[in-house]
Amino acid sequence: MTDLLSPPATAADRAESAPPALRIADLAVEFGEGDHATRVVDGVTLELHAGRTFALVGESGSGKSITASTVLGLLPRDAHVVSGSITVGGEEIAGASEARLRRYRGSHVGMIFQNPLASLDPSFRIGSQLREIIAHHRPDTRRPQQDDIALTWLENVGITDAERVLKSYPHELSGGMRQRVMIALASLSQPAVLIADEPTTALDAVIQKQILDLLQTVVKESGGALLIITHDFGVVSYVADDIAVMKDGRIVETGERRVVLQNPQHDYTRTLIAAVPGIGARFPLEAAGLPVRLGAAVEAGTDAVSPRTAVEPADAPPTLLRLDGVSREFHVGGIGTGVTRRVFRAVDDVSFDVARGEVFGLIGASGSGKSTLARVIGGLLPATGGRVEFDGVDLTAASANRVRALRPRFQFIFQDASSSLNPRIPVGEQIARPVRRFGKATGASEARATVARVLDLVGLPADYARRYPHELSGGQRQRIGIARALALEPELLILDEPTSALDVSTQATIINLLLDLREQLDLTYLFIGHNLSIIEFVCDRIGVLDAGRLVDLFPARELFSDERDQVTRTLLDAILPVE
Amino acid sequence: DQNGGTGEPVAGGDFVSALYLEPLALDPHRQGYWETYRVSRNLFEGLTKEDTSGETDPTEILPSLATEWSVDDSGTVWDFTLRDDATFHDGTPFDAEALDKNVRRISDESYEFYDEKSAANLAVWFGGLISGEVVDDTHYRFTFDKPFLGFPRILAQSMATLNIGNPAVWEEYGNDGFAEHPDGTGPYTFVSRTTGDRIVLEKNEDYWGDEPNLDSLTFRIIPNNQTRLAALLSGEVDQISYVQPDDVDTLEEQGFQVPEGTGASLLYLSFNFRNPDIKDERVRQALIHGLDREKLTAEVYNGYAQPQYSFQPPGNEAYDPEARDFEYDPEKAEELLAEAGYTADKPLSFTIVIDVANQNAAEWLQAQYKEIGVETEIVSLDRTSYIARAYSDAEPTDGLTFDEYGGSYAEWLYQGYNGLTAKGLDTADFPEISAALDAALTTDDESQRIPLWQAAEKLVRENAVVIPIANLTRYYALSPDVEGFVWPATNWYDLTSVWIDG
Amino acid sequence: MGTLKHVLLRLVNLVPVLLIVSVLTFAIGHLTQGDPIEAQYARTHTPEQIEAIRVAYGLDLPLWEQYLRWLRSLFVEGGGLSIVQNQPVFAILWPNFLNTLILTAAGVVVCAVFGILIGTLAGTGHGRLIDRASMFIVQVGSNLSVYWFGLVLIWIFALQLQWLPVSGMYSRRGGGFGDLLLHLILPSISAALISMLVLARFTRIGIIQERQSDHFRTFRSQGIGPIRLYGRHVGRNILPPVVNIIGLEIGTLITGVVFVESVFNWPGIGTQVLNAVNGKDYPLIQGGVVLVALCYLVVNLATDVTVDVLNPRLKRT
Amino acid sequence: MVLQTAKGEALTIVRGPRARRRRSSRRIHGQLALAVALLVLIVGATLLAPWIAPHDPLAADGALKYLPVGSPDHLLGTDEQGRDILSRLLYGGQTSLLIAIAAVAASTVLGSVLALIAGFSNDNIAGVIMRTIDILFAFPVIIAAVALAAILGPGTTVVIAAIVFSATPYVARIVFAEVKLQRGKDYVEAALSLGAGFWSVLFREVLPNVAAPIFIYASGLVGIMIVFSSSLSALGIGVQPPTPDWGRMISEGAKVIISGNIVPALLPGLVVLLVALAFNWLGDGLRDVLDPHRRRIRS
Ligand SMILES: Nc1ncnc2c1ncn2[C@@H]1O[C@H](COP(=O)(O)OP(=O)(O)OP(=O)(O)O)[C@@H](O)[C@H]1O
Ligand SMILES: Nc1ncnc2c1ncn2[C@@H]1O[C@H](COP(=O)(O)OP(=O)(O)OP(=O)(O)O)[C@@H](O)[C@H]1O
Ligand SMILES: [Mg+2]
Ligand SMILES: [Mg+2]
Ligand code: NI
């Protein structure tokens, strides 16, 4: 292991003296076999050194996650390593036996998986799962000690009511909480190499920062290295020392962060960097009378429409969506759960209007009730109080058939794209079904054409229609979700963190697409997100939720105004600037 | 010597017999089925009994609880002298008073323990009882409304007859409770019963007659033929009843005893008189002519059965081994059918209804009748549905059903013939049979009794109202070390003389 | 609703369910042809005499009256008198019922132990020889006729090898727990055969699915060894379906053990009911069905509740 | 410092798991092919029985009982009535296969539909459905079978009805458990938000997700149910004689096992086993076909 006390050496020195903490060389991974084989990782080589943080960025679906899971021999069943070498602390572990790999797992190399929601065992309380891991790595500890360690680590990842969380089952926690538990679980053994696959996508800015600090502390303390896979250039700027850019299974560019970011060599890297939204990026564009679009897409020149200001109508647009004192309560606890039964208010008396053609942003800390509110609006969860009016119709009171008839007019894009897709149906069919159901396409071929068109809109090739959800990367699934909603050409689109799983260039494409569509079709969006730059960029007005209540509501322009609520300001302060 | 026994009887030992049917209630007046009687005769006795030593065929009637009996000239008044040394298992002596309570239980509605169920069961023979009187402690008199010369033999039967139970028991436990505490005068006393499993009896130390050899008798109920066989082969039981013809060779090869004999029983085919085709006597005759019973017994029963031509079974006091109905003659059969108007284009056709146990025979029969141009269809049913269909709900297309029964008493003919009425036989269609049966049943001339029954049987035969087919000749199997077992010409056997060697 | 309330509701539900079962049994028994008196007397008695016996047994009453009489007898007269045996139905059935429970319990043990064992071997060795071999055994086994299989077992183990007894629960001079166990071996294996293999299949599939799950991967990525992975995580997560299948199989064992009882002459309720069916002994059939149904329903309820309790996610609305 | 791709460096070639997997995948296809081939062969042979059977399946000859397998004129020997076992097997398949397939199909469809509806209805409807199923379940099979025989009259329909009666609740409970697992899933919610109606969610969204277990279960039932029909035959509720039928052959053959004549029951048992195996493989194969995880992307 690297000696913490030794003075920082140059990269070249290190390469000669100590073996790298992790070294992947010429790795190739394929899915399937024979003629059907698809190579998803191709000749990837990278090296992690103690005390440094390595960021792996790149296109969604470029093979980042696959590369990461190869390290510990945790590839999906139908994938296999074709060739390559993987050394940890100088020892070769590619092709090692399970028993040998097991000695490295967790203790030498820790891994935080991309989809944290299903990564905890649903049958055990959090406390029990954490204790198991603690006991495994530190067999000398007794239960009270283990509880202490678990509590400490939950607090480390910013969970305030750690006592309760320890007693909860995974499904009783919000997505962000589960992600943080997963981070605690993987970090508490303080491995020499920590691989974090998009560890903060589901988190708000405040927690995100805290987590990133934590991850770095962990590897610093263990004298190890951090490999972070991310789409967020704010994150890259904040933590990374080195960076590699992946596309189509290959590393197209790599080097020290500053060098690569400031002087990108490869075209793709340049496109990527151009697509990064910075805070306040919108206003110069507006001022210059340019269409409000992100990065590369602007250069490519969407033949879009006139500047945005032109579309803004003079008089107040009609209201499309009206929320009036909406509340949603959950019963939690009860017999058999070990927790006393109580009522929990996830959404508390929220009222606001959204005008036709408007983009309404909804932000707030993780667990503040954004998704719940969105689901209430989308008619997926009945409200326990208040009214939701869509185009004058009270959805909370309307009959099921009435609501169904309205369905094509308001659509929902789920936060967790993976589970909202039917695993047994090809994605194309999943897009086509509602299209045919609501008569948006008459024949089968017309439906196929629609599918191809919307896939193209979200930047996926038409033949992906035949794939099943599990054959897609996280970002690709997210895009299918978007395509499926768009295909219905709804008037109101509720987007629950639609781009958090996407790389910045794809994100840019999607955002620009949404903006184009809005202008062409006069769509209305309710946009939920954590990424404040994106929110500011696309939204006209922004609402801030805190513990289920709407605490702030303002035009996007006034994001930094002094009148902002304390909650909003905390979020703003945590924004990670992009270099 | 069919028992292969040479040594002297040995006292002691526990004997296990496997029955193929669950016996009914152990109540002397409510019993039915031979398997019940094979158990209960060890507990209860009648006034008379049949000779089970195998020496006589038909069996002789011997004294049991009565030492002698006589009938008056009218044939209606029977006097019995009772033994004075018999006691019930609980120690109460058997006397005319006890007998009287037995009689009143089944015939006297004024008796507190008059039992409707028993009365109905015994009505066949005791319906004509006018009175039963206690003459003195050891003498008892029955008076019937008509001459009833067959009475002593009827008294030695298993069901619908008057075996003697201990009145103290039903007076204490009630009529329904008797079966839980069966108590009689027999050589064994009741120990326990688990329905579906076993009945255990043990030696009655105070038995009035010859002391039995065996200490205890266990009757296990093993309805599955294969399991029963396996239980014998493995030594779990010493004896089984209802040996399957297919298993005889196996048993003998392994040294088990499968004594040869003829019980007083008969397999027969009953006609369904509700079928208009069958009503035609020529059709019935043709169906008898068309049946080769030699071949049937050889092929279906592996030769372990005797062809039967008379409705009185072997072992019956009125059985005539020479009796023949219509001999096997397929041409004659075809002729008769042609006469009755059946041709190759329009053949006689009907259904053979069987319960699942007789499938082989039915299939054989189907092939046989095909040879005389008769088309048959087989309907094979579970037992319940079979009984329902065979006895009360016959379809008009049903032709034949399989039955098995018989008794050693001549009066069986009357019962058997009555049984046919359940199949639509109208006794009015055969007045001369009814007359002949009546004459035999109520004759007051002892010397004419058997000839009269035989004459009646001849009429039954000639009118072709039933087709007797076979009598099984291998019915019981015993393990090699059982000695002294005799298969008499009746449907049960006596265990008091049996012993286990070694 | 909470779990407790739920259990209570289900318990209350038992009443109408049992009532329907009883009406059905009664209706089926009485609406189909034939009756016990005929079965017993048809060959010896004239129709008039038979009718007289029927009256003596109360079989001439209107159906509804017979039903009500019977319903009452369930509570006050031990299920009424068996027509054939002339004894209170439950007095006859109770010992048989206990015997069936003994056989069922043994069957469940065999089923659970071997089913889970085979399923685990196959599931953990998924795709390997052991998987294929176990699944082949499962497929062969589940397609054997219990009847045939039982007889073959008898032929081999009782007759040829003479290791085990053929039939019943006790030997001649029987008694003793060891004797009972010996008698239980063959019947319980036969009884459990199919259930065991069903369980093996589900266990296997459960394990395979769990192995592909994200949380399995999580703990694997932490270096947790296979014993803990399977023993704790996979085990706990497949527990609900396994319990569900076991419960289901207990139910089928209770209601369907009749063929095994017949082959091994196990004096259980199945044989008893079959006998009653053959003799059309209504009170006995009805009593048997009600007893078996009650037992099944209780097992079923217990299974459902257990599965619910095992599922931390379950929140009823 | 990160190295660029350095080809030819200590490369570890990992082969083991891949080779195994490839074999297993080929095995799956082989298995499916074998299953189909077997079924075609068996079904074909039974359909062609009138032409290819060497003897009349009903022709009994008392002189030729229990001929051993391999006898010159009777390849598979003769049964307890001296009938040719091979011919009986050939003819017997017609009834047995019809019964098993029809009954299993009916109970699978019925059970699955009930379970799907129960799984996605409100508590009351689900309660009624599941309690009805409990009633069917709680009823001892033989009683039901005897009653059905009494109501419908003996014959093939009773066997089918009895199988449906006993298998439907079983299928329903198993499918219900599967459906319950699907109930809370997000894709169901997504489908609802895309305007899918109740039936559409049930049959177009949920059904594909429970189809695999249903297939496996149903295919496993085929053999079990032929065997079950043999138990019914032993009770006298079954295919009517003289029609040959595998179930009846097994139950009749079982009557002579203890006396050492194992063949007459063994042969039909083996044929049923073969059919059952073929259906099992077919079920597994279908499962694999249905399982997107096993599908290869056609590029
Ligand atoms: N089971 C599978 N079968 C076939 N292809 C797969 C499978 N799983 C993933 N892939 C493909 O492998 C490629 C790499 O996937 P991977 O998950 O590594 O992407 P990623 O770089 O992590 O993307 P994202 O940023 O969207 O998470 C993708 O193109 C994906 O479609
Ligand atoms: N079905 C449920 N039962 C009980 N509590 C729930 C349920 N669904 C959500 N909650 C709780 O409601 C609160 C709000 O959850 P919600 O998913 O709306 O948060 P969010 O703002 O979308 O968070 P994130 O940014 O992490 O997605 C959380 O505390 C969560 O634990
Ligand atoms: Mg990824
Ligand atoms: Mg959310
Ligand atoms: Ni509740």
TrEMBL record, chain A:
<protein>
    <recommendedName>
        <fullName>Nickel import system ATP-binding protein NikD</fullName>
        <ecNumber>7.2.2.11</ecNumber>
    </recommendedName>
</protein>
<feature type="domain" description="ABC transporter">
    <location>
        <begin position="22"/>
        <end position="273"/>
    </location>
</feature>
<keyword id="KW-0547">Nucleotide-binding</keyword>
<keyword id="KW-0472">Membrane</keyword>
<feature type="domain" description="ABC transporter">
    <location>
        <begin position="321"/>
        <end position="572"/>
    </location>
</feature>
<comment type="subunit">
    <text>The complex is composed of two ATP-binding proteins (NikD and NikE), two transmembrane proteins (NikB and NikC) and a solute-binding protein (NikA).</text>
</comment>
<dbReference type="InterPro" id="IPR050388">
    <property type="entry name" value="ABC_Ni/Peptide_Import"/>
</dbReference>
<keyword id="KW-0921">Nickel transport</keyword>
<keyword id="KW-0533">Nickel</keyword>
<keyword id="KW-0067">ATP-binding</keyword>
<dbReference type="InterPro" id="IPR017871">
    <property type="entry name" value="ABC_transporter-like_CS"/>
</dbReference>
<keyword id="KW-1278">Translocase</keyword>
<dbReference type="InterPro" id="IPR027417">
    <property type="entry name" value="P-loop_NTPase"/>
</dbReference>
<dbReference type="GO" id="GO:0015413">
    <property type="term" value="F:ABC-type nickel transporter activity"/>
</dbReference>
<dbReference type="InterPro" id="IPR003593">
    <property type="entry name" value="AAA+_ATPase"/>
</dbReference>
From TrEMBL, chain C:
<keyword id="KW-0812">Transmembrane</keyword>
<feature type="transmembrane region" description="Helical">
    <location>
        <begin position="136"/>
        <end position="160"/>
    </location>
</feature>
<dbReference type="Pfam" id="PF00528">
    <property type="entry name" value="BPD_transp_1"/>
</dbReference>
<feature type="transmembrane region" description="Helical">
    <location>
        <begin position="7"/>
        <end position="28"/>
    </location>
</feature>
<feature type="transmembrane region" description="Helical">
    <location>
        <begin position="242"/>
        <end position="264"/>
    </location>
</feature>
<dbReference type="InterPro" id="IPR035906">
    <property type="entry name" value="MetI-like_sf"/>
</dbReference>
<dbReference type="InterPro" id="IPR045621">
    <property type="entry name" value="BPD_transp_1_N"/>
</dbReference>
<comment type="similarity">
    <text>Belongs to the binding-protein-dependent transport system permease family.</text>
</comment>
<keyword id="KW-1003">Cell membrane</keyword>
<protein>
    <submittedName>
        <fullName>Peptide/nickel transport system permease protein</fullName>
    </submittedName>
</protein>
<dbReference type="InterPro" id="IPR000515">
    <property type="entry name" value="MetI-like"/>
</dbReference>
<feature type="domain" description="ABC transmembrane type-1">
    <location>
        <begin position="97"/>
        <end position="303"/>
    </location>
</feature>
<feature type="transmembrane region" description="Helical">
    <location>
        <begin position="284"/>
        <end position="307"/>
    </location>
</feature>
<dbReference type="GO" id="GO:0055085">
    <property type="term" value="P:transmembrane transport"/>
</dbReference>
<feature type="transmembrane region" description="Helical">
    <location>
        <begin position="101"/>
        <end position="124"/>
    </location>
</feature>
TrEMBL record, chain D:
<keyword id="KW-1133">Transmembrane helix</keyword>
<protein>
    <submittedName>
        <fullName>Peptide/nickel transport system permease protein</fullName>
    </submittedName>
</protein>
<dbReference type="InterPro" id="IPR035906">
    <property type="entry name" value="MetI-like_sf"/>
</dbReference>
<comment type="similarity">
    <text>Belongs to the binding-protein-dependent transport system permease family.</text>
</comment>
<keyword id="KW-1003">Cell membrane</keyword>
<feature type="transmembrane region" description="Helical">
    <location>
        <begin position="158"/>
        <end position="175"/>
    </location>
</feature>
<feature type="transmembrane region" description="Helical">
    <location>
        <begin position="215"/>
        <end position="235"/>
    </location>
</feature>
<dbReference type="InterPro" id="IPR000515">
    <property type="entry name" value="MetI-like"/>
</dbReference>
<feature type="transmembrane region" description="Helical">
    <location>
        <begin position="32"/>
        <end position="53"/>
    </location>
</feature>
<keyword id="KW-0472">Membrane</keyword>
<dbReference type="Pfam" id="PF00528">
    <property type="entry name" value="BPD_transp_1"/>
</dbReference>
<keyword id="KW-0812">Transmembrane</keyword>
<feature type="transmembrane region" description="Helical">
    <location>
        <begin position="97"/>
        <end position="120"/>
    </location>
</feature>
<dbReference type="GO" id="GO:0005886">
    <property type="term" value="C:plasma membrane"/>
</dbReference>
<feature type="transmembrane region" description="Helical">
    <location>
        <begin position="256"/>
        <end position="282"/>
    </location>
</feature>
